[in-house]
């Protein structure tokens, strides 16, 4: 075995022995303090304790926001990407987690949200979603089917473009 390999193994063993053990569902950044991991919450993240997993489709921020004596399920205050908030989290009394709803087809959220809102259609020319608009459709002044691919160009066509094509065709008819 070469020296570098031996050194690596030695350092690995030393590192393992000095690493701070934390609760299930927790980890440490500095080997001094344990915090419940992202997506978990708990009153004590030290070894032997357990951090609870946030309800499906919701998540938490690791640190003092999701770990400590006063922490409850209200620490699960963000919906994961692709889900929007229908009711915010509440940390009062025993707490309630944020309520999340999956984004309608062909829409998403750009980051984990914690305030009540709606998803954004992939198509930049789609009408904004709301409590009454729950499917993606081209906004007023546009026709066609909104794009079904995130990040791609709009597939809604402006009425003015359609009109000018029509006008061009019509002028051809008159020319010949
Ligand atoms: C914490 O311990 C681990 C394992 O021993 C080590 O790899 C890491 O560098 C340590 N981090 C700090 C910030 O001391
Ligand atoms: C999470 O999302 C899925 C898919 O939309 C849904 O079936 C499930 O009920 C949600 N879970 C919770 C706890 O809201
Ligand atoms: C969303 O996209 C799918 C194809 O990926 C399509 O079948 C569906 O009709 C679209 N829904 C809406 C509401 O635009």
From TrEMBL:
Keywords: Membrane, Signal, Transmembrane, Transmembrane helix. The chain crosses the membrane at residues 157-175. It comes from the Eukaryota. Residues 1-19 form the signal peptide. This is Transmembrane protein, putative. The lineage of its organism: Eukaryota, Sar, Alveolata, Ciliophora, Intramacronucleata.
